[in-house]
Design brief:
By secondary structure, this protein is an all-alpha fold. The protein contains 10 helices and no strands.
Length: 247
């Protein structure tokens, strides 16, 4: 990877983890669509996983006592199934179709967020832990973007904001640990330059995390949300076009 690519990597990681510091999730949704423009998806996802392990542990486990353990126990078995399926696909499926799937996923998530902006979230039954866990696990393994899936489920199960924030952080951290084991067994962590790239990117992720944590005190959540949705829509379309034009 050339010097200019490392510059783009640093800027992208700072931006992605600034969003994470502001919102508590979303780093991969920002970083992956940009980084796959010049790095293989099979390289980008494991690299971001290593960054997520550090940043999520720093942020998410401060309020372990507020975590809903029943929800964790419901999600984890199905998350394991999803991660296993997603890791298999990531290691074996051609990059072109993975990029197409990523582009469509980002566009659909953006459209859903726009359409549901004024909708009132209603509670859901325990059984929804099955699709939430499996689908969240698949997208976590494929693109590092399972956070929105888990958020859709937990926001309808945990109306108390402290319990929701603590539980979603715990879910994302546990997902990262499960993916670490799955990626190690599949050989995805043994790629050349992966650890070096993650080591270079790590300081930028911590800088972004610090910036986002500071900005959260002065920037409204609505302003962040609008800017993020605009960016995600454009980046999703870009990735989709790249996948469709690959030979």
């Amino acid at each position: 990877m050339g010097t200019e690519h490392y510059a783009v990597l640093g800027a992208t990681v700072v931006s992605a983890y600034t969003v994470f510091g502001l919102t508590g999730f979303g780093a991969a949704m920002v970083a992956v669509p940009i980084l796959v423009q010049f790095m293989p998806l099979q390289f980008v996802v494991p690299m971001l996983l290593l960054l997520d392990l550090v940043t999520t542990a720093m942020v998410g486990m401060r309020n372990w006592s507020s975590v809903s353990r029943p929800e964790l126990l419901r999600l984890i078995p199905f998350m394991l199934v999803g991660v296993a399926l997603g890791t298999t696909v990531l290691a074996q499926v051609e990059s072109r179709w993975l990029l197409v799937a990523l582009g469509l996923f980002v566009i659909l998530m953006t459209a859903r967020a726009l359409l549901s902006a004024s909708a009132r979230a209603e509670g859901v039954a325990n059984g929804w832990a099955v699709p939430a866990g499996v689908v969240g696990g698949i997208f976590s393994a494929l693109f590092g973007t399972g956070g929105p899936i888990y958020t859709m489920y937990l926001s309808r199960r945990l109306p108390q904001i402290d319990a929701f924030r603590s539980t979603i952080a715990a879910v994302i951290l546990l997902s990262a640990l499960v993916r670490l084991a799955a990626f190690a067994s599949s050989g995805l962590l043994q790629q050349e330059d992966l650890l070096r790239s993650a080591a270079i990117a790590m300081p930028f992720s911590l800088i972004g995390l610090a910036i986002g944590s500071r900005l959260r005190r002065v920037i409204s959540a609505d302003a962040v949300r609008r800017a993020l949705l605009l960016f995600l829509g454009l980046s999703g379309a870009s990735v989709l076009c790249r996948g469709l034009l690959m030979h």
